[in-house]
Design brief:
- This protein is mainly alpha-helical and 243 residues long.
- The chain folds into 2 domains: 86 residues, Orthogonal Bundle (Arc Repressor Mutant, subunit A); 145 residues, Four Helix Bundle (Hemerythrin (Met), subunit A), CATH 1.20.120.530.
- The chain is 70% helix and 3% strand.
- The protein is built from 13 helices and 2 strands, in the order H-H-H-H-E-E-H-H-H-H-H-H-H-H-H.
- Strand 1 and strand 2 form a beta hairpin.
- It is globular, with a radius of gyration of 19 Å.
- The N and C termini lie far apart (52 Å).
- About 3% of the residues have low confidence.
Length: 243
């Protein structure tokens, strides 16, 4: 088996995530685990697109995500390369320096603002096929409710999936969904600590369903009002765990 790293990569598209996010996660994982060394040149966009079975713009979006996070650098006319470890170390140290309180505020701001942007995009694209991430929102809202009857971790993961999917639907800000995933990972202990409260809040379930509906209907004003309520209530519940 002498396949290149990108040929050997195992990739299974997730119905719930934007493909660009999945591809970025796949490549990032191999950078972090040293499967792809520093200064390695990535295959061309067309080559990666053919391998993953997606369009070139989807691969370009994945590259944009990884560039924004400091994992890749682009030398115009030459190619795309993995950055040296110093950049990754700086990124990791930056995350390690953030407190749980700061992370919870970042999560609050994302949850508060992004649904409005996605709903506005839907409203402006009535005759265009909706982003797959948007179409998944009602299902994710119902899955969040179904998770009430499982382990607390299942509920937390389902809640994070709902909000991360909204972030993934913001065109031109693909890196936000990856950032949201990192925030959720760091906040997992605190989120687990308050899951017994948030998972029994039926009115919060209803607000999540209403946010999904407002986005699907392309109603940015309603999406803004509802998402602010959701974000604030989740921030307040988390405050008991992070101080």
């Amino acid at each position: 088996m002498h396949a290149q790293w990108w040929q050997a990569a195992i990739y299974r598209p997730s119905r719930r995530q934007v493909l660009a996010q999945d591809i970025a996660d796949s490549i990032r994982r191999r950078i972090v685990t040293h499967d792809i060394g520093a200064e390695t040149r990535l295959p061309s966009v067309l080559t990666l697109a053919a391998f993953y079975g997606v369009s070139p713009p989807t691969v370009q979006a994945a590259v944009h995500i990884l560039r924004a996070l400091g994992y890749l650098r682009v030398a115009h006319g030459v190619g795309t390369f993995v950055r040296r470890r110093s950049s990754e170390l700086a990124w990791s140290q930056g995350w390690d320096a953030l407190s749980a309180h700061e992370l919870s505020l970042m999560r609050y701001l994302i949850d508060k603002e992004l649904p409005t942007l996605v709903a506005r995009r839907v409203a402006q694209s009535r005759n265009v096929r909706r982003p797959r991430a948007v179409a998944d929102l009602p299902f994710l809202a119902s899955e969040r409710e179904a998770a009430h009857h499982g382990w607390p971790e299942r509920f937390v993961v389902a809640d994070l999936a709902f909000h991360r999917t909204i972030a993934a639907a913001v065109r031109g800000a693909e890196a936000t969904a990856l950032l949201y995933g990192e925030i959720g990972r760091r906040l997992m202990p605190a989120l687990m600590a308050v899951a017994d409260v948030t998972s029994t809040d039926r009115s919060l379930d209803g607000l999540h369903r209403e946010v999904a509906t407002a986005i699907l209907d392309g109603r940015p004003v309603a999406a803004s009002r509802l998402s602010r309520r959701v974000a604030l209530r989740e921030l307040r519940s988390l405050a008991h765990a992070v101080g």
